[in-house]
Amino acid sequence: MTLNQMKYFIAVARCLNFTEAAKSLFITQPALSRQISAMEEELGTELFVRDKKKLKLTPGGLILYNGLPELLKSYDTLVEEAKTANQGYQGHLRLGILDVYDISGEPSTVLRKFQETYPQIQLSMARLALGTLPDEIYKGNLDIILTYAFSLFDKPDLITVDIQKYDSCLMINKNHPLAKKENLSFEDLKNEHFVQLAEKSSTEGFEYIQNLLVKGGITSHIKLVDKLEDTLLWVETGNYVTITSNKTIEKNNPNVVIRDIDFAEAKGHDMTVAWRKNNYNPAIALFMEMLSSEMEA
Predict the structure, then answer these.
(1) Nearest to 271 by CA among 86, 132, 171, 144
(2) How far apart are CA 186 and CA 191, in angstroms?
(3) Are residues 25 and 76 in the same domain?
(4) H or E element: which one contains 272?
């Protein structure tokens, strides 16, 4: 049963007259009759009761007439959605961003250009904790995440693209004696109390910071918290220091300062964009094309 046959059947069922239906379809009455007969033969049942005075639907024909218009409407809607989706002109892109990541610069520029270029794509954004971002993308609540690359190690079925480098740095209270030094070594920090993200919040984040501290000779005086933003609270008290990055929004806090660490393992890490391999949302490709072009400029 072809789409045209379905449309022909609906027209005849609506008019209950082959001649009038043929006129509305701009085909001849014999051609329309042949199509309806072929349809009945294929289905193995009569759809109309034909007599000299009046054309009537059979019970089976009535069932088809009640269901086919909605089916054709759904089909037409799906076809239009497929066309516009491939053109990238409508849809929804859900972006998750690491809660402490400073998007100023290229990421901010791309987000603005994306909305200007594709106004019919609904862009939603949310800042989320380090350990939450991968969970949300696996649950299907996000299309793309932007986070530290180390937090995605051993995460299956993800496509990742590194977009920016960052260095691990030290965040300390502005009144801390070490705040006056521009570059710090771990030797300077051996007697300091550190605060860092707990393992239950992000295994990868915990292991990264823990390994960095151990390699730097820091093995004690470490307080664990549930969120990266909580580390800022403890630093603001003046009694703790923490490892952060030079791409953190915390650098804008007037109560703290960010200082470089003179340590090779703290340098040259990656900020990464990631999405699921089986997510075929065309807006992802459009966003990544624009992001890549901006990063290469």
Answers:
(1) 144
(2) 10
(3) yes
(4) strand 269-276
Residue 127 · residue 81 · CB < 8 Å: no
Q: Please give the Cα distance from 195 to 174 (Å, whole number).
A: 16
Contact 144, 287 (CB under 8 A): yes
Considering only CA atoms, which of 99, 132, 126, 89 is closest in space to residue 111?
126
Question: Around 54, how many Cα atoms within 13 Å sit in the side-chain half-sphere?
Answer: 3
3-class SS of residue 95: strand
Q: What is the pLDDT of residues 51-95, one digit of tens each?
A: 877 899 999 999 999 998 888 888 888 877 776 655 555 689 999
Phi then psi for residue 82, to 5 deg, are -65, -40
244-287 per-position pLDDT tens digit: 999 999 888 999 999 998 889 899 999 999 999 999 898 999 99
Give the CATH number for residue 192: 3.40.190.290
Which pair of tokens denotes residue 183? 């570059």
Asked if residue 146 and residue 11 are part of one domain, the reply reads: no
